[in-house]
Amino acid sequence: MQLSTAPSVGRRRRGNPDSQGLLGVLSVCATLLQLCAGCPSECVCNSLEANCSGRSLISVPALTTLPEGTHTLLLANNRLSTLPVSVFANLSTLKTLDLSNNYLDNLPSRLFRELNNLSNLSLRNNSLTVLDRELFRGLTQLRRLDLSLNGLAAVPLGLLDELQGLTWLSLAGNRLHALERPTFEPLVNLQHLELGMNPWECDCNLRDFKHWMEWLIYRGGNVDAVECTLPKDLRGRDIRGVPVEMFNYCLQLEDENGGGAGSTKGGSPPCFRGTATPSSEGAVVRTEAELPDCVKHRYRPVSVRRAIGTVVIAGVVCGIVCIMMVAAAAYGCIYASLMAKYQRELKKRQPLMGDAEAEADSEEKQISSVA
Fold first, then answer.
1. CATH number at residue 157
2. For the whole model, what pTM was predicted?
3. Which key words are in the record (predicted)?
4. What share of the chain is helix, strand, coil (3-state, %, to 5)?
5. What's residue 352's pLDDT?
6. How far apart are CA 102 and CA 125, in angstroms?
7. Which domain holds residue 57?
8. Strand, coil or helix: what is 202?
């Protein structure tokens, strides 16, 4: 009996690995079926990424069927021109969103409000000309924002207020000719800023932003070339290399127009969140004591390195002038003392010379009388 049962036991043991492999194949198939069932037909999905790019889409597919836990959504290289307000609802796990190379021209307010974990957003190469100041509300975790190659002519105040964690920003290839410094002051962690390929007008409207750029560079940030197109005498020059003294006339213009050095278009600059800000609509004239501290003592950066260099150079020049003045005074004193000594000696010699002349005259008289 034992000999007859041994082979059957051996066969059962040899059959266990086959059953385990079959179960593994079935589980993988079940996972793939689940992913396919939860992925839009226009996209290719895996556990973390949904790739819907390059499909010539004119509308966004149903994103509610994306697999749970999707971190990356790629919608680049399509023909999207508009986006519904709630298109990104229930996608709180999304970390990367690529909408580049489309035809987007108008994005609704608070479009990304539910993407509170988004860290990378690309809107590169679209047809955006105006951005709603509430567009990026809720993106507190955003670290990288690409707005290059659009038609933006301005960046509205308040657009970047909640992006204090942003480290990389590109505004290259737009139609920007000036930027307001208060718009960028909330970006306290920014390390890289791209502003090239814009028609910059290097006049008084860009002066304060130039100061902010210098402050960003001083604390270790990187800003690419900002070449001036106007005025003609500055065309082709990088505004970072234009001396601050060339903007001194702006202060005179502000005084003539009755505006302070810190005045901006559209009223006072915005304060940080949680601070009441004066409204530009129906503004009431207030005294300085009534203004909030963030407006009254608003940060006004200057080129610290240039200021230090100016102080050092001025000190060296003043030192050299002082040394030259001391040397000149010493030389004058020495020269005066030598001349006084010379005059005294000359006066002492004059009587002796007079006696010698008298003796010579008497000798000549004696010689003439003898003759």
1. 3.80.10.10
2. 0.62
3. Cell membrane, Disulfide bond, Ion channel, Ion transport, Leucine-rich repeat, Membrane, Repeat, Signal, Transmembrane, Transmembrane helix, Transport
4. 40, 10, 50
5. 60
6. 7
7. 47-247
8. coil
